[in-house]
Amino acid sequence: MKKNSDHQQEINRRKFLKMAATLAAMAYVPAFEPTIKSDRWGSVLPTRKLGKTGLDVTMFTLGGGPYNTNMQGEEAIVEAAFKGGCRFFETAKAYRTEPAFGNVLEPYRKEIILSTKSGAFDAETLNRDLDASLKALRTDYLDIYLMHNVSTMESLKRKLDGGVFDAMLKAKEEGKIRHIGFSGHSDCKVNSYLIDMKLPDLEVMLVPVNVIDPVKDSFIINTLPTAIDNNIGIMAMKPLGGGAMMGADITWGEGKGKKRPRVIPDIIGMKDAQHFVYSMPVSTVSYGCTSVEQVEEDIALAKNYTLMTKSDQDALIKKVTDIAKNNFLEHYKGTL
């Protein structure tokens, strides 16, 4: 029995060394240099270039993931993010938070970058979703529009065969969209495949980037280099594993209802977790904050960011490796 245990430990050690070597190979791509700005509303959080779009986006993005609060609570979260210097806001029609974003952000439209998504599988639904989003967000154009949840090769084929991407291109020609991209959190291979298709005007992707990601089916290791080689703007999501690292129960998909152990603060700190993501070659990190207090904490950590060395990153990954490979911390990988 001990022999089998020793053998498994050796396999795990080799996997970690291989993973660390792959991350080290990315060291030639440093975290993008931030720029400090201000606008007529006050100080702005540090910004980074978003790939070939040329857009300057704040490192902290407020994500519109389901807040499960009342409208006043949602609007207070959005308002706190703007007052804290955030100028990049991303949501989705499916999240039901677009009205709160629109209510708060309409007066600031010229100073912000606004992104939303559609999970449509055909052109007709895409166009209907787009018009509904524009109305809810109180704007006549979107800076970024994403194909939402490109999860499998089959789902990608359905979207492309259904005319979704063609409809997005047409909407761009009509001035409703300025930049086109996609989001995907299930299969890094699908994301890389889509980038390698070199579809016209594909400029942005939204993918999971966090300290537990490199342990298995890693977007950091497998997809970020492909995006960088193609100058695709990288928006990071799930910096805390969609709440998993805080011990949140799984609320959807595979493993729904399962309890999860806490990574933060039991194994690593919140500052380390967030600065790890900012030290990756990403342009911005989307946080689905559920309270004003969370917004303020996350913005403070963005302001205090310092570049993490590769050795410090590897040390953090090593700390979370065992727990990351033995439970549902990333239940969204492989979930349809």
Structure description:
- The protein has 336 residues and is of the alpha/beta class.
- It has a single domain, classed as TIM Barrel, CATH 3.20.20.
- It is 40% helix and 17% strand.
- The strands form two sheets. An eight-stranded parallel β-barrel has the order 4-5-6-7-8-9-10-11. A three-stranded antiparallel β-sheet has the order 1-2-3, covered by helices on one side.
- A hairpin with a 2-residue loop joins strand 1 and strand 2.
- Helix 4 crosses helix 6.
- The longest helix has 24 residues.
- The chain is globular and about 50 Å long.
- It starts with a helix and ends in an 11-residue tail after the last helix.
| Proper CATH architecture | Alpha-Beta Barrel
Q: Note the overall shape.
A: globular
Give the averaged pLDDT, no decimals: 89
Main beta sheet, described?
8 strands, parallel, barrel
Helix content: 25-40%
| Cα distance spanning the termini | 37 Å
- CATH homology superfamily: NADP-dependent oxidoreductase domain
